[in-house]
């Protein structure tokens, strides 16, 4: 007999309107443990609103969001912080914290001792290749460096979080401020987390990055899911024309495991 486990995330019939404009309409979305989902679509498609609804920053007009089978509204903020880590599009701090202090903010909910948290933080700094920034004042960093620091912070949050339940990582345009090397490094890290069981959602603009790293892609247009599946199912000239109004060339070549969009 198969054991039925609840999905890590289930969005059920979400509706959201603002100033009479429908942002998303009866939207249903499910994400399983260890799955990497990319959310794509043109500007105004509803990507950021969906992201904010899942994080709790935005309250849908109607519908329900479940985390590991529990209604999100019934879960304490403390428990959510141990299960759900969020990397927003931009996270500015005006205080002159050192980089290590910003990263350690991810360990505030830790059940383990401070020495263990510090060890984990140092390990993450090394993995993300930002040890050289450890004692830098955060406001002096470039936009890309700040993004890498905040990604390290959410990695620490997941590392000290609740391992008894599947965890969820939300990334909102995480590669926007990064050069090509660190775009791939960040998404590789997210992919490794997914392979270790974390459910990952990334809002992306780059179709090629989504096709390379995501297990599944959804295309949003006017608040509706127009396509949902693996890269080869979703990234087609017809879908790109319908959603973006762009005449593309999609190359499926045996040398590549994913489509290439031009």
Q: How would you describe this protein?
A:
- Helices cover 34% and strands 24% of the residues.
- It has helices at 47-55, 77-83, 99-104, 114-127, 143-159, 180-195, 207-213, 231-234, 237-244, and strands at 9-18, 21-31, 36-40, 62-67, 70-71, 84-87, 168-172, 199-203, 216-221, 224-229, 250-251, 260-261.
- The strands form three sheets. It has a six-stranded mixed sheet, sandwiched between helices. The protein has a four-stranded antiparallel sheet with strand order 2-1-4-5, with helices on one face.
- The mean pLDDT is 93.
Mean pLDDT: 93
Helix percent band: 25-40%
The total count of strands amounts to: 12
Main beta-sheet strand count, sense and barrel state:
6 strands, mixed
Oligomeric assembly: single chain
Helix/sheet category? alpha/beta
Arrangement of strands in the largest sheet = 6-7-8-3-9-10
In N-to-C order, the SSE pattern is EEEHEEHEHHHEHEHEEHHEE
Percentage of residues in strands: 15-25%
Gross morphology is globular
Low-confidence stretches: none
N-C termini distance: 46 Å
Return Rg in Å: 19 Å
H/I helix tally: 9
Please give a quick description of this structure.
The protein is α/β, with parallel strands linked by helices and 262 residues long. The chain contains 9 helices and 12 strands.
Strand and helix map with partners:
Blueprint: E1 9-18, E2 21-31, E3 36-40, H1 47-55, E4 62-67, E5 70-71, H2 77-83, E6 84-87, H3 99-104, H4 114-127, H5 143-159, E7 168-172, H6 180-195, E8 199-203, H7 207-213, E9 216-221, E10 224-229, H8 231-234, H9 237-244, E11 250-251, E12 260-261
Parallel strand pairs: 3-8, 3-9, 6-7, 7-8
Antiparallel strand pairs: 1-2, 1-4, 4-5, 9-10, 11-12
Helix pairs in contact: 4-5
């Amino acid at each position: 007999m198969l054991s039925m486990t609840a999905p890590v995330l289930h969005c059920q019939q979400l509706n959201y309107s603002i100033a009479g404009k429908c942002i998303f309409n009866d939207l249903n979305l499910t994400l399983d443990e260890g799955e990497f989902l990319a959310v794509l679509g043109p500007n105004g498609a509803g990507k950021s609103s969906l992201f904010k609804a899942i994080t709790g920053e935005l309250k849908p007009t109607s519908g329900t969001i479940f985390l590991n089978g529990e209604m999100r509204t019934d879960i304490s903020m403390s428990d959510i912080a141990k299960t759900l880590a969020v990397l927003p599009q931009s996270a500015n701090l005006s205080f002159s914290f050192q980089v290590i202090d910003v990263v350690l903010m991810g360990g505030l909910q830790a059940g383990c001792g401070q020495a263990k948290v510090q060890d984990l933080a140092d390990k993450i700094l090394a993995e993300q290749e930002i040890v050289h920034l450890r004692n830098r004042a955060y406001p002096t960093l470039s936009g890309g460096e700040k993004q890498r620091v905040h990604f390290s912070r959410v990695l620490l949050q997941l590392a000290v979080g609740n391992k008894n339940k599947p965890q969820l990582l939300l990334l909102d345009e995480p590669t926007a401020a990064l050069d090509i090397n660190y775009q791939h490094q960040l998404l590789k890290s997210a992919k490794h987390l997914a392979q270790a069981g974390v459910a990952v959602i990334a809002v992306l603009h780059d179709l090629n990055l989504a096709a390379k790293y995501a297990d599944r892609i959804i295309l949003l247009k006017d608040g509706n899911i127009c396509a949902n599946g693996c890269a080869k199912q979703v990234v087609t000239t017809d879908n790109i024309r319908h959603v973006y109004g762009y005449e593309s060339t999609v190359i499926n070549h045996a040398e590549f495991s994913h489509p290439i969009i031009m």
